[in-house]
Amino acid sequence: MANPDILFRGIPRARTRGYTANVIAAMRPEIVVVPCCGSFSLAVVAIEAGMQPSEIVCGDISLYSTALGYAIMDQDWRLELKDERGETVKSYLDQGPIAKAAAVFFMLRVLQYDRKVMKAWHIDHQRELLLNVDAYMLQLQEAVSEMRERLHGIEYHARDMWDTLEEHRQNPKAVLLTNPPRYDGGYDRMFAGIDAIFDWDEPEIGQFREADYKRLMDLLGESEAHTMMYYATQGEDPTPLWGEPWRAVFADRPGNTKRSGVNWIIANGSYKDHMIARTAMHQGKPKYPLFMGELSAESVLTAHREHKAVGDFYRDLFIHRIEGAQGEVYLSLLVDGYLLGVIGLHLQSFRSGSGVLKGTKASDLPVKVVFAFSVPHDVYARLHKLTLMSLLSSWLWDDCFAGQGWYDIRGCPRMIQSTMLTPYPENKTARGTGLKMRSRDRQDDGSFKLVYDGKVVDRTREETLKVWLDKFGKQTR
Ligand SMILES: C[S@@+](CC[C@H](N)C(=O)[O-])C[C@H]1O[C@@H](n2cnc3c(N)ncnc32)[C@H](O)[C@@H]1O
């Protein structure tokens, strides 16, 4: 079993976990409740966000979670064999909760090779596992002990999520992280074999079904506790299915194709200002290939005006976090003809001079940056800073607007400004780009309203790239 940690991998992906951690850190609830905790990855997130283990309550109905939960709590429980296939781990069943969890995980791994038609490859792997059971059991017990170290002190109950929710849903100081199964039958299939091998005091309740969502969303929609619901779809914001007060607060499309699904976080009320404004994922075709390559001093950066459809298409493709505002002017940023970033601006007041205060000039008005996204890149960790630094460079503005009457009169804007509503007290991506925080206001719901601005510098495309390469080009993933 080259990869025992496969058994411990949870479903929410890194960005979704990161957002969750930041919301918890910003809200500082008294208790975090995970009613269907699977592999406990959301409990780990809560710990990483600064919660004490004693402030975390988990539940699930599967043997898998129960085995891990009791191991984490150091609590013994009844686990017996009911099928001879389990004989191979029998001697571990009276060695305490860590060994019991490892025995369940070992058998899960063995069963993962069971197929109606077993290929030689499956048979070999299964046989190899069974031959080396003691070595693998050692490995698994170490992995379980590691989880125990991380999470010891939390509470786990093998019980129905409805009971866990009922207990905590009216607590305004609770955050509920709710991630029930998304597709009927998936967990039945996953656990079917294992439940035939072991006998334990199983809660007499079936797996949550797709048809239960309506009841769940109605119940939590009118609850006091702040709920984050994890929900994956092929595209559209699912909240209209459930109406008020649900709203999408986060979306992540892990793949780069239009076919890849979107992982949503839906909340029952807080972060109102993150509400998604557009209702449909934009349909369209890519105009440029995405930048996946390497940057060097010879790379050529260019910027272009784009139609709204092009801007929306790429914004949808890169969408990480939902902010409602729509740009009025869209730009693309390219490297050697490949798309690096997409930007939405409000230029109207700069262009028309409206809103100028006495004693200032129209050209002093900042241009509002409504959004800026950069292509997710496998290698460069700080690529988005290049998009921001380009926005703070005169060449980008010349590329896009030179030759237009208003631009030739007013010239390049002196300042750009960006306002964001986020659970974070700071936008780390701005660091080192020239953007500075102008103000930070804590909102009633614990989120922050941050205003950043920065001076646009007289700089060529080559200079911008050189500064980025020197400062950030070596920071890779
Ligand atoms: C999508 S998974 C949760 C994944 C989890 N966030 C993780 O990181 O592994 C759904 C979980 O819901 C559990 N579940 C299904 N029906 C349940 C119910 N009625 N009560 C409690 N848990 C339930 C399943 O056993 C499964 O572990």
Fold topology:
Blueprint: H1 14-27, E1 31-34, H2 41-48, E2 56-60, H3 63-73, E3 79-81, H4 97-111, H5 120-131, H6 133-151, E4 155-158, H7 161-168, E5 174-178, H8 186-197, E6 198-200, H9 213-221, E7 226-233, E8 247-252, E9 262-267, E10 301-306, H10 308-318, E11 329-335, E12 338-346, H11 348-352, E13 367-374, H12 383-391, H13 394-401, H14 405-410, E14 415-422, E15 436-442, E16 448-455, H15 461-472
Parallel strand pairs: 1-2, 1-5, 2-4, 5-7, 13-14
Antiparallel strand pairs: 3-6, 7-9, 8-9, 10-11, 11-12, 12-13, 14-16, 15-16
Bound molecules: S-adenosylmethionine.
Residues 10-12, 35-39, 41-42, 59-62, 65, 160-161, 179-181, 187, 205, 207-208 line the site of S-adenosylmethionine.
In short:
The protein has 477 residues and is α/β, with parallel strands linked by helices. 33% of the residues lie in helices and 20% in strands. The two termini are 27 Å apart.
